[in-house]
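Annual report, structural modelling task.

Input specification for the iron/sulfur cluster complex:
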Amino acid sequence: MAGVDQEKTGLGNYFIANYPPFSFWKPSYLPDAVMALNSPPVPGTPLGLYLHIPFCRKRCKFCYFRVYTDKNAKDVEVYLNAIVKEVELLAQTPCIGGRKLDYIYFGGGTPSYLSATQLRGMIERLQTILPWDAAREVAFECEPGTLQQHKLQTLRELGVTRLSLGVENFKPEILQFNGRAHLEEEIHRAYGWARDLGFEQINIDLIAGMVGEDWPNWRDCVRKTIAMSPDSVTVYQMELPYNTVFSRELKVIGQDEPQLGIADWPTKRAWVDYAFEEFQNAGYEISSAYTVVKSKAKTQFVYRDALWSGADMFGTGVASFGHVNGVHIQNVDTWEQYIEKLDKNEIPLGRAFPTTPHHRLIREMILQLKTGHLRADYFQKKFGANILKEFADGYRKLESEGWLTVSEDGVDLTPAGLLQIDRHLTTFFDAEHLSNRYT
Ligand code: SF4
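The model returned the following structure:
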């Protein structure tokens, strides 16, 4: 049982996105990144492209991503030229050149901040460098208030298959207090246009525990989301990472107005639990610790599944993360360095981490645990490893605490385990990766 302090939403990250943690990636490993890019790929490994579009209309108070709210049209043009140049340089490397893209992901930031003309210009240039004809998914993140019908029409024409709407909450006061730029009516308008245009898949993102959230409003958010009938819904639990507006402000606000703090973890888990139950009552299935889908058979999320099963992905744009040929790579993380390196025709590598097969086994195992199930035969076939033996101590510990069950086929999380899986994943980290998890 966690102590009271652990149950408060303290400063720091909860969500585990990768392994080994980012704080162990170093510029001194860049020669490994260069070697990975200059080596042929492992045959049969899918390849994805991630594009980081770092512009937002305003900074949400809980946001810790590399985003800019002060760039003008000229800056945007400079950035888009740089990102196309980056893809061009990467496409010339032995690791990437000549390979077909399996999936493409536009993330940010706010990709939908770009105008229809900017999007068309950038995407058409990208497609001449690396065709998308074999891609199973083109996913695109949107902020509802930046969408117009003609922009969505352009995205549909350019081949976007999965649209993800960053709704987060419906209540105007909560959206505003948390620094979101969009309004409730913009959510409904954008969703209606997207549905009419026939996108293959529309996802809605919600956040459980935005500042000001309470039970009546959360029930209302879930009810409104179900009424819209999206293909999938992703529910994140609000964190309080370092370097956000809230991490600086809330300590003060919290003392003066305690009702404006972030809900504790048990409350946020209860909200996600409630949402998952309501979505299941409405016919959705749970597909991960954060996601419900209308139909697992029809609603794939290629980007997530590829990432969680060790696919290659090159991350482009400022501060972007990728993984190729067993090496984690992150780009330089300032605008100036990013633009300058591409001006000089250099791939803007910032830091890297060369993984061992053992790291990759841990990485896939913990990421796939987020689906709620692990199949031992998958790991046996791919890594020649018996996870039930290799991680027996960790599974036994979590089983005794009620978070999972082990069978001869694999591991299944309990419903309670699924709701808090990220806090237990460090159980499987190598000892040297247990400190200083996120920087
Ligand atoms: S829209 Fe997303 S990326 Fe932009 S500031 Fe808000 S949370 Fe950050």
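Residues 356-439 form a domain with the Arc Repressor Mutant, subunit A fold (CATH 1.10.10.920).
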